[in-house]
Structures are given as C-alpha cells and as structure tokens.
Design goal:
single chain, 163 residues, mainly beta, 3-stranded antiparallel sheet, 2 helices
Length: 163
C-alpha cells in the first residue's frame, strides 16, 4: 500500500472560529477523532461526528470536522457519506462528492475539511457524537498532456483561484 496522506487536527483557534460560524452560540467540543479505517481491507477512512445531530427529511447541516489532511502530489481525498447512511436515509453530500485537493492543506483556513449533508430520505436521521457519518478515500489522479495550470491556491473551502 502507498502511504500518501496524513490526517491531523486544525488549530484550536481555526476550529473554534469555524464552529462559531456554523453553530452560533454553541460551545465548540473537544476535537473529534481523526479519520481511520475500520478494517485492514477498508478503502474508506471514517470521519466521526464532533456533535450529536438529527436531520429531518429535507434538512441540511454543514459540519466543521476539525480535520485537515496533508496529501502527496498526484493524490486526492474524495469524501462520501457512509454507505449504510446513504442506503437507509438517502444521506447525501451537498456537492455529491467532496474533493479535497493536495494544495488545500496550505489554504488560509488550514485546509479545514467541512462536510455538508442533506437528508434526502423520508425519515429522520440521528447521529451521535463520535459516530462515523462520512468516509474519505484516497485516490491517484492524472493530468492532461497539455495541462498548463500554474495558479497557487490561497483561499479555503470552494475558493480555488480566489483570495
């Protein structure tokens, strides 16, 4: 297996600021567990919820995970809902699949990974703090022969080519 990434926590200051923006008036919890695989054969690294939450059908929630990931060049971290939650509740990521680029690690927001979820099902979903709710898979990628990208990321989430 190639060892191509390292999960770590964002700074406490970054986490508390992002938490306050996502959940005004709610005290930021201690850092959640870093993502990890459940078994030696798992492709996905489970992301654990930093809070108890319930999503009624049609509701959306943006979760600051407290996690960042240093990724080797030529690799990407793809985020998905946990399979069981997708099957049982039609839990979806709002951007369908989260793409965490290697250069996101150096962004102004420290590469803080957020997960925005929607319950597209017909029954409420409850997740307890510490339960796995999303998973990340590290994948290699290629570039086109005539690629000439030279910009450098400065912004954070959803802000490639923006300051």
């Amino acid at each position: 297996m190639n060892r191509v990434a390292k999960f770590m926590a964002v700074s406490r200051v970054q986490f508390e600021g992002d938490w306050a923006e996502a959940f005004p008036g709610v005290f930021a919890p201690d850092f959640p567990r870093l993502p990890q695989r459940a078994t030696a054969g798992s492709a996905g690294y489970d992301f654990f919820s930093p809070l108890d939450f319930e999503l009624k059908p049609g509701e959306t929630l943006k979760i600051p995970t407290g996690v960042r990931c240093r990724i080797s060049e030529g690799w990407v971290l793809m985020l998905f809902p946990r399979s069981g939650l997708g099957f049982k509740y039609r839990l979806m990521l709002n951007n369908t699949v989260g793409v965490v680029d290697a250069d996101y690690f150096g962004a102004k927001n420290e590469g803080h990974i957020f997960v925005k979820l929607t319950n597209a099902g017909d029954r409420p979903l409850s997740v307890k703090r510490g339960e796995a709710f999303a998973q990340g898979v590290l994948l290699p990628f290629g570039i086109a022969e005539d690629d000439d990208a030279s910009d450098i990321r400065t912004g954070g989430l959803g802000s490639t080519n923006r300051t």
